[in-house]
Design brief:
With 71 residues, this protein is mostly helical. The protein contains 4 helices and no strands. The protein has one domain. Helix 1 packs parallel to helix 4. The radius of gyration is 15 Å and the shape is elongated.
């Protein structure tokens, strides 16, 4: 394998890890009650930008931590 193949493989692995983390955080969010769901509190107009920039999981984790501190 040449260097290009390794770079492509690393990119595929990075994207896969990002998707898996997103699925896990969204699954945790869906386990919460409807009023506590983070997905309900995130503004829809910013969601697409957050997904593209990779910050959606950070926002979900921050909101879950905020909810946990309130309890």
């Amino acid at each position: 394998m040449n260097q290009g193949s390794y770079v492509l493989l690393l990119i595929i692995i990075a994207i896969s890890i990002s998707v898996i983390v997103s699925i896990i955080t969204l699954s945790i969010d869906l386990m919460l009650t409807k009023s506590d769901r983070v997905i309900e509190k995130i503004k829809p107009d910013q969601t697409l930008n957050d997904i593209v920039n990779g910050t959606i999981t950070d926002k979900i984790i921050d909101e879950i931590n905020t909810l946990a501190k309130q309890d």
